[in-house]
């Protein structure tokens, strides 16, 4: 294994809280932050990454195999957040580059955002608000539904999925779910009834996904799945674009098979599917799941501490 003793130059290319910079500098690292790089060409990004040992990103910077192969000095990629799907981790492994994330730092914020979207969907809060602000008083247009007694299906029962379950149980929603790595017995300890996916779809009034984006979760919710759901099902995605097939969702909204969707993440960001985000039954936010002061401080501190611990040879989490 390489020696990491001389690893001290870091580049931050996304909007990571300043605590990360402060902690690294206090521990002898040289840190440059340039958040315009995420939007520049791969060549420009590579030119800067070639000068550093450590690259720190959120989700906007795409750390492709070209960036990794073009940066022989790079030893560590730090992700201030959970998902590492914007990093080619296979290429990083091939080149002996360590990839770290900060599991848990934004769990509560992402879970709270999901719950907020579920409540907003049930009561059409964004469109009712926009209508009133435009000068209208259309009470009858915004008839909502109670969450009480409705069934929420949670696909992915990891950190965020479980926190969503706990919170929505307080609205008296019935929480059911699926996760290939969690048993039915384990699910019961946090109040979720386990179903295989094929049995889960027809039971749900609301479906929320909390899985990582990868080959096996690409278009996990597609035309066929939507056709197996209850008519009028509502969908929530605060995980990753590409887990729900956007065109299939749009068709379902147009046909009435789905009566609403709340999306924080998109197949392309900023989203290209304008028909979907402008659909009257869609609530959308620009990837804000982790955008709270608390979560951003937490992930910045966690990542800086992990980098410092790594350099000092201490044991690690989030690797
Ligand atoms: P986690 O690793 O704690 O949980 C993910 C769960 O998904 C695991 O339990 C895993 O077993 C399960 N899973 C994997 N494949 C599955 C499949 N095919 N079907 C069902 N379950 C499957 O991760 P987490 O902290 O709960 O985060 C989940 C995802 O949410 C992250 O990967 C990230 O992409 C996303 N996220 C988004 C935001 C945001 O700002 N919108 C914020 C944080 C996290
Ligand atoms: C994550 O995976 O942690 C999210 O994309 C949140 C973020 O980085 O803002």
Folded structure, characterized:
With 319 residues, the protein is an alpha/beta fold. The protein contains 13 helices and twelve strands. The strands form two sheets. The chain has a seven-stranded parallel sheet. Strands 2-1-3-4-5 form a five-stranded parallel sheet. Strand 4, helix 4 and strand 5 form a beta-alpha-beta unit. Helix 1 runs parallel beside helix 13 and helix 5 crosses helix 7. The protein is globular. The mean pLDDT is 97. It binds nicotinamide-adenine-dinucleotide (NAD) and D-malate (MLT). D-malate (MLT) binds next to loops. This is D-3-phosphoglycerate dehydrogenase. Homotetramer.
Based on CA atoms alone, the radius of gyration comes out at 21 Å
Uncertain spans, ≥5 residues at pLDDT below 50? none
- Based on Cα principal axes, name the global outline: globular
In this entry the ligands are: nicotinamide-adenine-dinucleotide, D-malate
- Classify the helix fraction into a percent range: 25-40%
The fraction of residues in strands falls at 15-25%
Number of strands: 12
Largest sheet: 7 strands, parallel
Written as H for each helix and E for each strand, in order along the chain, the element string is: EHEHEHEHEHHEHEHEHEHEHEHEH
GO molecular function: NAD binding; phosphoglycerate dehydrogenase activity
Subunit structure: Homotetramer.
Family: Belongs to the D-isomer specific 2-hydroxyacid dehydrogenase family.
Organism: Rotaria magnacalcarata
